[in-house]
Amino acid sequence: MNFIVAPIFFLSGALFPLSDISPTLRVFINLNPLTYGVDGIRGTLTFNSHINIFWDFGVVFLVMAVLFAIGTYMFSKTEA
Question: Structural domain boundaries of the chain?
Answer without folding.
Answer: 2-76
